[in-house]
Amino acid sequence: xxxxxxxxxxxxxxxxxxxxxxxxxxxxxxxxxxxxxxxxxxxxxxxxxxxxxxxxxxxxxxxxxxxxxxxxxxxxxxxxxxxxxxxxxxxxxxxxxxxxxxxxxxxxxxxxxxxxxxxxxxxxxxxxxxxxxxxxxxxxxxxxxxxxxxxxxxxxxxxxxxxxxxxxxxxxxxxxxxxxxxxxxxxxxxxxxxxxxxxxxxxxxxxxxxxxxxxxxxxxxxxxxxxxxxxxxxxxxxxxxxxxxxxxxxxxxxxxxxxxxxxxxxxxxxxxxxxxxxxxxxxxxxxxxxxxxxxxxxxxxxxxxxxxxxxxxxxxxxxxxxxxxxxxxxxxxxxxxxxxxxxxxxxxxxxxxxxxxxxxxxxxxxxxxxxxxxxxxxxxxxxxxxxxxxxxxxxxxxxxxxxxxxxxxxxxxxxxxxxx
Length: 420
Ligand code: LLP
Known about the structure:
Layout: E1 4-7, E2 10-13, E3 16-17, H1 18-25, E4 29-33, H2 34-47, E5 54-58, H3 65-73, E6 77-80, H4 83-91, E7 99-101, H5 108-116, E8 121-124, H6 127-139, E9 144-149, H7 175-183, E10 191-197, H8 208-226, E11 233-235, H9 252-266, E12 269-272, H10 276-279, E13 283-294, E14 299-303, H11 312-316, E15 322-324, E16 332-338, E17 347-355, E18 362-365, E19 386-391, E20 394-399, H12 404-408
Parallel strand pairs: 4-19, 5-6, 5-12, 6-7, 7-8, 8-9, 9-10, 10-11, 11-12, 14-16
Antiparallel strand pairs: 1-2, 2-3, 4-13, 13-14, 13-18, 15-18, 16-17, 19-20
Helix pairs in contact: 2-9, 5-6, 8-9
The structure holds ligand LLP.
The site of ligand LLP has 22 residues, from helix 10 and helix 11.
């Protein structure tokens, strides 16, 4: 459920007419609904209340400080993957004991920084990384917590680019190697291996892949217990799918009902790392139709938002529902909704049956809250869009549109190049 609805033929976000936002802040514009965001977080929290997990919102899904702050204030922790995300986590005052850190490629500087800041633990993705963290911890004279990210070799049944739990993926450590590592844990005197982590992919709509992965890891936990290796945490990652089109994803409650019995058996403290589930349907991208172009073969709505603003359709062929801000009745015809960028992959919707919409009108690209702005770029020297958050009948600008100066802020023309 989300709070973007038509009222009297106009799209609203909570109590605000989206058109008013488009006119005031211009387009392309990301619009978020505070209550949708918080509602999704609370739904998950409520579904799992029996075991009171730590819910670490996955910062990469949408890393705007206002979004992070809203969730942290409601008790969420954060799942981070870089020094930059740690910086953001600290900016919003996330307690360090609520921060977990994954990524296959943590640098020494990032590791050092996170150790100094005393995050809850690293999710370690390889033996060399484990050795490196141990070495750095020794240098800093610290004993630190790590969880082993297990690659459970399960098929998440999602897009191949966002499947992460197959043995051919770069993520995590296979069970056999993880077993060896745990037996040899004394070789890492500066580490406490305190838990296991899995994250099998993203936009997963069924519970079966989770059950398969958790079952594998649970059997592993039991095996370790017999050898006297007692862990404290099980981090089951994120990945919960949402509705973009005709998906029928599990609700938080259904997901919890399926996995709770397995989780309870382990008796470990559980961590969840949802991103998309919380923020995906809490955001839309608003674009203005610049031109309606009819070619002998096709109709194109050329809008002022492009693949640099929302890249999901271009790289995953992802479906986002596109609707006009002003409800239009009557016949529909097939059209592509495309951006101004110089690539044929620059589309927001393809072969979509849309009502007849006029030039100058606005469109909303639904379900753009997750991996929308956070994956945006300045390609074609386009300024990244502004972001606003609606809280009932109030609107807050949470990021202003890039200025042209922002585009060249870090660039320099070497003096020596002049006149060469
Ligand atoms: N935990 C880890 C270790 C992750 O790598 C991810 C996402 C998450 C949690 C959160 O997953 P979520 O709940 O949002 O599915 N750009 C792609 C999605 C990439 C996901 C990367 N990892 C997209 O636009 O679909």
